[in-house]
Amino acid sequence: MAQTTTEENTTDKSLHMAATFTITVSSYAGFRYLGFNKTESIFAAAFTSFFISSLKEVLDKNVDQGDLKADAQGTAAAMLGIAIFHF
Length: 87
What we know:
The protein has three helices and no strands. It is mostly helical.
């Protein structure tokens, strides 16, 4: 396994957070459009985000705990933003 620099590692984690944030918000909008209520949509979107990000890690065949933590942080940030700002 090749070593990465701290800057590359930070950028990778930031991209994981941004991707899961985007997936969560987009999924939430989709579930709301389909007629789910706010609470159902938030949790369905979080599940969708966790599923997609976990599947991506498994398919990489190199599961990185740091990537999964960044994915969880991005999803949590999106859920919090939705809950606070009532998208």
